[in-house]
From TrEMBL:
Protein name, UniProt field: Alpha-mannosidase
SMART domains reported in the protein's UniProt record: Alpha-mann_mid
GO molecular function, one term: alpha-mannosidase activity
InterPro entries noted in UniProt: Ams1-like_N, Gal_mutarotase_sf_dom, GH38_C, Glyco_hydro/deAcase_b/a-brl, Glyco_hydro_38_C, Glyco_hydro_38_cen, Glyco_hydro_38_cen_sf, Glyco_hydro_38_N
UniProt keyword annotations, A-Z: Glycosidase, Hydrolase, Metal-binding
Enzyme Commission number: 3.2.1.24
GO CC aspect terms: fungal-type vacuole membrane
The keyword Metal-binding belongs to this UniProt entry's keyword annotation: yes
BP GO annotations: mannose metabolic process; oligosaccharide catabolic process
Coiled-coil region(s): none
Group of enzyme by EC: hydrolase
Amino acid sequence: MGGETIATPKAKSTYPKLSAHPIGQWIPNIYKDRIAAFYGGGQYETKNLRAMMKEGVASGSPHVKLSVWGAPNLSRPTFKEATSHNFKETSVGQSFGPSWSTHWFRVQLTVPKELADKELLELHWDANNEGMVWTKDGNPLQGLTGGGERIEWILPKSFRDGKEHIIYIEMACNGMFGNAPGGDSIQPPDPNKYFQLAKADIVAVNVVARHLYIDMWIIGDAAREFPTDSWEQHKALKVANQVIDAFELGNQDSIIKGRKIAEEYLGKDVSSYKVYKTGSKPLVYGIGQCHIDTCWLWPFAETKRKVARSWSNQCDLMDRYPEHRFAVSQAQQYKWLKECYPYVFDRVKEKVKKGTFQPVGGSWVEHDTNLPSGESLVRQFLYGQRLFESYFGERCRTFWLPDTFGYSSQLPQLCRLAGMTRFFTQKLSWNNINKFPHTTFNWVALDGSQVICHMAPAETYTAEANFGDVKRSVTQHKSMDQDETSLLVFGKGDGGGGPTWEHMEKLRRCRGMSDTVGLLPRVHMGDSVEDFFDRLEKRVDDGLDLVTWYGELYFELHRGTYTTQANNKYNNRRAEILLRDVELLATMSSIKSGYKYPKKDIDDMWENVLLCQFHDCLPGSSIEMCYDDSDKIYAEVFETGEKILKDLYKTLAVQNITSSSVRENILALNTMPWYRREVISIGSKQAGIAFGEGRLLTIKPFKISATSDVTVKQTGKIFVLQNDQLSVEVSGGAITSLYDRVEEREIIPKGGKANQLVIFDDKPLYWQAWDVEVFHLDSRKELPPGTTKIVQTDPHKVSVMTETKISDKSWAKTTITLAAALKGQQSYVEVHSEVEWREDMNFLKVEFPVDIRNTEASYETQYGIIRRPTHYNTTWDMAKFEVCCHKFADLSENGYGVSILNDSKYGFATVGNLMRLSLLRAPKAPDAHADMGRHNIKWAILPHKDTLGSTTVRTAYNFNNPIKLVESSSSVSTRTFENPIKLSGDSSLILDAVKRGEDDEDVSRGELAVRKGQSVILRIYESLGGRSKGTIETTLDVKKVWKTNILEDDEDVVEINDGKIAIILQPFEVATFRLQL
Ligand SMILES: [Zn+2]
């Protein structure tokens, strides 16, 4: 046997035996770069996808007829006023200006027959500036921003009837970022810019091509940005190139085919909101936002228009994109909208009701948090929350400050007291030294109160909703050990604008991609900011431990903002003090004498002060126009305040002083809540001692025999000022010795020069008005002293004055004064400096070397004290080379310390034993003239026994609230004006504000439910950081007492016995009490 073959069954392969032709591996970069060229501009734009984006265009007469009226003198007239004028014919190609002017266009639109049936018709309008579309009846519809930002307005269906339709466009001659001269937007604005109307077309949009364009943008991003070792990246590259290969110019089917290919990567639903309905768990929650700086590179008046433009756009976008949620803060902007644009306000209100337009923040504006006083922060919330409640029936639950320059340590406590448990920000991502370590955490105040803080990991509040933003929401998330979810806050911002249709479309594709191929974090739309935080709070309820951060969120940048625009800061401090006086006196008078509490005037004053605390206004980072505005706003505040005080004087039977000599009917007006005793000058030569408690203090004539003397002696070039407690040696203009005669202790270290003016070269890396950089410290120069002379030798007060030449244009006259010491009261050295300041990019400071050793210095902050290092051990310590203080900074060691008080300054540094108060800067952008001119600055050196205590806190209050002389028409018993409400007990307790209840029936302006009867609100805080006991004593007929939150909601009943209310405050607690009469 043999030879036969057994057939083995074999599978028949069709795999080609021979290679047909060589095929190479894709060269990744080349295939990647090809994608952008497919949908981008440039040499192929007439041959690629871009060439097919429009199905037809109609421009010029008869389809688009234009006429114009220019508003005179940079005015911003209303629709009615503007359209009452004659319009002159104009055309595309014409230019309009100058900067800040307004031009109204009548636009007569006739849709050509051949476009009437197209799917989508838009008006494309681009003049490289901002605009608002109005109906012919005067309803503002939608904003426009040139330069391609948002140039389209969708024509209503009714316009397709072949007839002529009229709209108006209000053109504002400024860009989204004002009128900067060139590419550098923080340079002072060019006053003479003109804007060419480049485009006014009716466009029929190829909707499918537009969709494919977004498909390719996002798939292209995946191809470019996904890691090359992921299959998802290779797939993206493949799909994108397949779409390009399928494309044929002029062939609509090839575009439809392209979209079909794109579906392989993006899924089927990316052209509708249904893409978000898959039920899979998202990581990133998209929230639309449009940050509108209330003033910055444009004045307040332009902001009012920006608000209307931006928010009307969002209402429109919500109609087309049901998933759109838009969060907006700043009560002031809502108020402006209601007053100036009721039509848009009604649209917004309707969307708020639907839950798509979401008020957040709870504050009056997005304010600075370093500089405003504690009471100002309280009022930001009080006025903000009351407006939100009265407009929309609800308060905000999330405090929203994405762009403010650092966050002071008591904010979590105040947020909680304002009904908010959440805080959103992201600004610390700008730190230029240390990276902030958390994105979701509990932020803890000085008193231990906490809020959940979330900082968007995408590190922006103006995200373009790009693939990269979604990706960074996970890759830069630093708290994923606790919770992996995050907010993505997107939309054009700073200059307003908000999300565009492109943002909405891009995010749909990102979501589609996550659900189809994965890898990209899953983004979700349709949830609110509150939904996001609700989930987090729920997780904490269920046992999640969030990481904690105690104390201030110090911003490692923009440290110059504690000092820039000194006059504005001075006005803020004065206005806060004036408001305190006005409210205190008006409260007492309105209860005792039938005087009507001037609620409207007080509201107007507060709203103005709160407005100027906006995060580019008070910090000093706006253009000159804004400070011209704020000067006027403060002038109004002071005028109203003085008017109220004048009326109040009548209720006290006193008036402003008319002649200056010590007479029986001269009294001292006092608004400090404690016993006060001070030497005061009356006229040029006389003096008295004011003493007592209450609103009016008696003055007794100053007699040398009655108290100790104060003297000044000159020996050669050395001057010695001396009273019972202190001896001050002035040599070369500086204090070379400050000797505490009671404690027998020298305060100035050997060779040290206190009160020495020093100057620094101040050219930060970029942000001039904002930043002072660490390297400025290396340029320190002592200003050489000029002559010193004795200028006052009165028995109660002596002074020497030193003239200092700063440069050929600038000088300072610095007067060091010592008053007679009063027994039992700490004496201090008072300094007044008059400065003529004409410098370029220099920084003026004054130094105080002190013989004190401590690794931490203390600084007054709102309702408390914050301690910061005096050394540079770590980069975190060193980053605090310039910090914020309020009325004082203090360096103490066990048993003794020195406080530096000030009347209007906020910048300070303590390095080792050198204390340094920042006085004036000279940045040239964005205000070319910031701080040029005359300044009057006061500070004081207060040495004290023991560590920092109530002596410093109270003296700093007194220093900022000098006693005011008044005269009575007849003899007045000052006892009548003793305060009917007093606080006794631990001296760390401060009665900071006294006011009437917002909703008392004789006070209320009706915005919220009225409360029967009268009440007095007291704000008391613990100032030193220890549990403190006290007693509120009142002679008023108080029926009931509540502890309330800062919104004046009654919380706990507090016992009152015989006019006495016992209170206990926790360290750094802010407590509000409502006394119901
Ligand atoms: Zn801002």
